[in-house]
Specification:
mainly alpha; 2 domains; three-stranded antiparallel sheet; 6 helices; 11% strand
Length: 168
Amino acid sequence: MKKVLTYITVFLYVYLFYVIFTGGIAEFSLVLGLIGSVILTTFLTSFIIQREIVFGDLKRFFYLVFYYFRYMIIDEVKAHAMVIKIVLSPKIDIRPAIVKVPFNVKTHYGITLVAGSITNTPGTCVVDVDEEKKVLYVHWIYATTTDPKKAREEISKVFEEYAMKIFG
């Protein structure tokens, strides 16, 4: 039963993703999405799901949705504003540095979410991940500190908190 629930859940996510991002509600589009979602679910579920999905995972899904909106509305806007300020100022005031940023997330999915969030945020880019030392090396366009703990507070703490709620 759990395996069936896992496949149904993955199918619904894939199909919902397809419908939202294609924006099409024509019959042909919906049927094509249905067929594509069944095929993707059949072949990829065993590769992308490391454990069976349970009903408790719905809470994690809501954390993911909340994180997405928070990231897009707050973190992205603040980072874009900072980069715009740097670019438009008469004297370019940058302090580029590659800083060590320790992380506490335990899963590969969590590390990927944190690293991706940092990289997608203007002004920062993860250039290396050291899983043994649990450190991200981040190129920071306006480094306010090189202290790893302080850098974590400024760069990745919020991302990590959500990653742990979403992926454990």
